[in-house]
Amino acid sequence: MSIYDEAIHTLSGEETTLKPWRGKALLMVNVASRCGLTPQYAGLERLQARFSGRGFSVLGFPCNQFGAQEPGGEEEIARFCATNYGISFPMFEKIEVNGEGRHPVYRELTAAPDATGDAGDVQWNFEKFLVDPRGAVVARFRPSTDPEDPELVRAVESVLP
């Protein structure tokens, strides 16, 4: 199975898969509304605006596993993202990214190592996984990496279809 085959729900509750994004470069990010890193939403939205016309999309996955920093329901999350950051990229249901309840999409993602060779659990909110158009995880950026960090932007540009 690939990341494209796993069932997931959109933030509005519709069941889907990631198949609509096959053939695009993706930056998949676990997000939270009440985190010190929440301002990264702005940079993620700028990446979306900059590269969406070139076969790229950010995909957001709310998660409440880190300090209970995403306690709201889907409507509250959607309202927060729209009101505070004008988010236009797709957002999915709140999921678990670590542990026994880890969503299957994140089972695939967390198998990929970061630049130091470390794979495994997501460390905190706003960990970023760059997926190429074939569905391979080609880079992993830890939470402190700003979405507009030059290294991350170069990595995105290198996998655009």
UniProtKB/TrEMBL annotation:
Pfam families reported in the protein's UniProt record: GSHPx
One Gene Ontology term of the molecular function aspect: peroxidase activity
Keyword Chaperone recorded: no
Record key words, sorted: Oxidoreductase, Peroxidase
Catalytic residues (positions): 35
Family membership: Belongs to the glutathione peroxidase family.
Designated name of the protein: Glutathione peroxidase
